[in-house]
Structure formats: C-alpha cells, structure tokens
Write a structure and sequence with these properties.
The protein has two domains: about 5-140, no CATH class; about 145-174, no CATH class. About 20% of the residues lie in helices and about 35% in strands. It has four helices and eight strands, in the order E-H-E-E-E-E-H-E-E-E-H-H. Strands 1, 2, 3, 4, 5, 6, 7 and 8 form an eight-stranded mixed beta sheet that branches. The termini are far apart.
Length: about 170
C-alpha cells in the first residue's frame, strides 16, 4: 500500500508502470481522478486504453521518437454512481495489454471529456492514498519546445533570454 495519507508525486513524467504498481498495492480502494479543481464524476468510464509509438520533427528540425500510453476517461455520472475500484481499473488495462502489447515504461497521458466539451490531455502529477480511496491529481499537458527543454536541462538556466530564436530554429539557420 501507499500508506493512508501518503502522497506519491512525480517531478517529471509518471510511467504506466509506476501508476499501475501504485494501484495494485491498494486494489480495494476507490479510484478518484481530480482535474481542474474538481473530482471527475464517480460514474466515469475508461473508454480507451491505447499505446502509440511516435516519430516526429521538433521545432528545431530534430527527429524525435517516443512511446506513450493513453487512457481515456469519459467524465459522466452514470450508475452505479460510485468510483471504480483500483483493481477494476488495473484489470481493464491488463486486458488491453493481453490483446495489444503495452510498454509499461512509457509516459502516461490521460484524456478526459464529458462527451460535450473537447478532450483535455493531462498527466498524473501525484497519487494520494486516503482511508478509502486513491486520488490521482491530473494536470493539463502543455505544449513545449523540445530543443529549449533540452537546453534548459543542460544549462539549468533560462533559455535565450527574451528570444527563443536560437533555441528553436534549426541549427542550419543559426
């Protein structure tokens, strides 16, 4: 178990493995997702679990490759009007993994919508175990400039001062 009242936070990306392992340690507890200042409604459905491999060019014309697991939540309050137990959520993901291999070490993205508003992309930033539930804090996933992010990681300072030009344009243009 996480331990009642204990929070698992992540500074970077939470992997599918880390997320599911935490749920497996408290299978009987209700699984609550919280986003945008409120809990997603108790009758939510897991409508898709998908795994993707991506190849792209970033804004600096650098090739990028990564894998990602997406879990789509439909934010509705339908019967039985209670939160899904962690064990049921894990069983859904495990069933998908049997049919279509998922890489547990991928970054994890949650998609959620109420079926009216557009899908929002989020990442899990913390899991908090309470007496009878696990609360997963979701934070919107924002766009970023990968060359700038790499440069910041290397420099541990702000990129390009007031201009991102030298970070984000291809090396052949600089």
């Amino acid at each position: 178990m996480l331990g009642a009242g204990k929070t698992v936070s992540t500074a970077g990306e939470m992997t599918a493995r880390k997320f599911l392992d935490a749920l497996r340690r408290a299978p009987q507890k209700a699984l609550v997702f919280a986003a945008e200042g409120r809990a997603i409604r108790p009758g939510y459905h897991v409508t898709e679990v998908k795994f993707g491999r991506f190849a792209a060019l970033d804004c600096g014309a650098n090739p990028e490759k990564w894998s990602e697991t997406f879990i789509q939540l439909w934010d509705v309050d339908e019967p039985p009007h209670q939160y899904m137990p962690a064990a049921k959520f894990v069983a859904i993901v495990d069933k998908v993994a049997q049919l279509s291999p998922l890489d547990p070490d991928t970054r994890l993205t949650f998609e959620f919508s109420d079926g009216v508003d557009a899908i929002r992309l989020s990442r899990a930033v913390a899991l908090r175990e309470e007496a009878d539930r696990i609360v997963v804090a979701l934070e919107r996933r924002v766009a970023s400039c990968k060359p700038r992010d790499r440069w910041l990681a290397e420099q541990d300072s702000s990129c390009c001062g007031t201009s991102m030009k030298s970070c984000c344009e291809p090396a052949s243009v600089r």
